[in-house]
Amino acid sequence: MICDMTQHRTNPLHRLALRAGLLLPLLATVAGLGISAGAQAGDHQEKARELAAIRAAVQRGELLPLPRIMALAQARVPGDVVKTELESKRDRLIYEVKILTRNGNVQEVKLDARTGTILRVEDD
């Protein structure tokens, strides 16, 4: 994910999405290396803060809740949701929903996180 960092200084949700997109793979790697319990506790606290910020944004109506996003995506592409991500792209929050279709293909549905508008459907 390539992002203009100046956009993320002013909007905490965009900073959150960027941090989650960049840190989660790193955190998974660090956890796999057996880093100390203190570092893991700090990582857990950061993850908890990120999730709390997302919940608060949903409660304020700034983001649609994940069950609604999943229903919109599955209405467009029937199948089982296998992965969801919240990302910041071009100063916009985007849900990416990967769906395993009945014929065994995986399709990715990109939706505007605020409105639920389907932006793109593509093979993954």
Automatic annotation (TrEMBL):
InterPro entries, per this entry? PepSY
In this protein, which residues make up the domain named PepSY? Answer: 69-122
Name of protein: PepSY domain-containing protein
UniProt source species: Sphingobium baderi LL03
